[in-house]
Protein: Transposase IS4-like domain-containing protein
Amino acid sequence: MSLTGGNRNDVTQLMPLIEAVPPVRGRVGRPRRRPDHLLADRGYDHDKYRRLVWKKGIKPLIARRGTPHGSGLGVHRYVVERTIALLHWFRRLRIRWEIRDDIHEAFLTLATAIICWRRLVR
Structure:
């Protein structure tokens, strides 16, 4: 996965993100190479990207624009929002001071390790 500027449209990074997903390990047999489903909000509602995701063998569960809320995707999205909020505990990640990508990614890895450690200790 690569870091991009904050002013870039998220949907442009969808396919590189899917390509960067590592094999799912832990079960006997050949490891799965891709997830079964893709959950996304209305910002990803483009038929072009739906087709590209389908071609990868992944079922896109993307909220449609103009439809009322309550599709059920919010239940899963809450996990992502909560994770981002946890990362915002670390000021260096909330406001990116690092110019070099590798240093920023190192702080991100360190922050996720600290969050996991705190949860395991409890």
